[in-house]
Design goal:
Order of helices and strands: EEEEHHEEHHEEEEHHHHHHH
CATH topology of the largest domain: Transferase(Phosphotransferase), domain 1
Structural class: alpha+beta
CATH architecture of the largest domain: Orthogonal Bundle
Oligomer: single chain
CATH superfamily of the largest domain: Transferase(Phosphotransferase) domain 1
Mean pLDDT: 83
Low-confidence stretches: 163-175, 283-312, 330-337
Radius of gyration: 30 Å
Distance between the termini: 134 Å
Strand content: 5-15%
Amino acid sequence: MAAPPLPSPGDMIAGHMVLRIAGEGGAAVVYEARDRLDRSFALKVLRPEKAADPVAVTDFANEAEATAAVGHDNVVRVLGHGEEGGRHFILMEYVDGPPLHLLLAEKGRLPFAEATRIVLQVAEALRHAHGKGLVHRDVKPQNILLYRDGRARLTDFGIVKDISSLKGFLLKGRAVGTAAYASPEQCLDKRLDAATDMYSLGATFYHMLCGRPPFAGASRSETMKLHVGAEPPPPGRFAPDLPKPLVNTVLRMLAKRQTDRYPDMARLIHDLTKILEGKVAIADAGPRVDSRSVTAPKRTKPVVPPEAKKSRISPEAVIFVILLLAAAGITVAALLL
């Protein structure tokens, strides 16, 4: 039996009236819906062709349960999921602003302070998820929803995995989320961990600051090769106004090796907070800050060339010479009398 078509405005699902399409993805369509108290909710409905696939249906249910399990202010709230009349749905909080990818399509790139505030909120959500042993594996602008007042919500935990066991590190053939934001280890089918989300968040951050992802090949496979073997173009090429400590932070998030990235979201949050609070000299025109830290380099004594060292005479030596000359003058005068 074929699955029913996607709902139309006016249809009722789980006691909620469908109003309009709010967003679309390859597996599901998100609608704005209203309950009997005239409150807005998001209703995510699995596409009919996916509803006929038991694996897709299981993944859809897992997405709802994993998202609810994270339970953080910066993760979209899931209120329930189920099936009604052959339609599989997830009921979620309704976010009244645009997804991040639509905001970027409109503005190109964001001011660094606005981009940093968004990343901080997503990092808080990921820190909480990682603390529960969960890795998202598909952090990207499409999965970051924004309220009109600037609050951010991470969503779509459809390929989230439990990293507390070896089974959670990798599923062959399903390791890569979206190529433009995929980590090198995802592209190489290697072991995944919390650093995987760090890289994808870094690629998303780069996009916000520069107006484009760090790598954009002519094909999916070419983009994946760039993630593995190429260095991202310097962010200053696209945004020369970026503070150096912020540039170094983004590049550290995008390190090829997992162990070269920030050790955890807590450290990233610490450094980004310092930048926003102005505790780092964002107008620094001096040497490039070490890419492993946003803290200012230690001051060092100026280097004195060897020839300058040889010719330099201390004040004490000058006084000593003067006294010697004075004593010599007195002696000569006494002999002449």
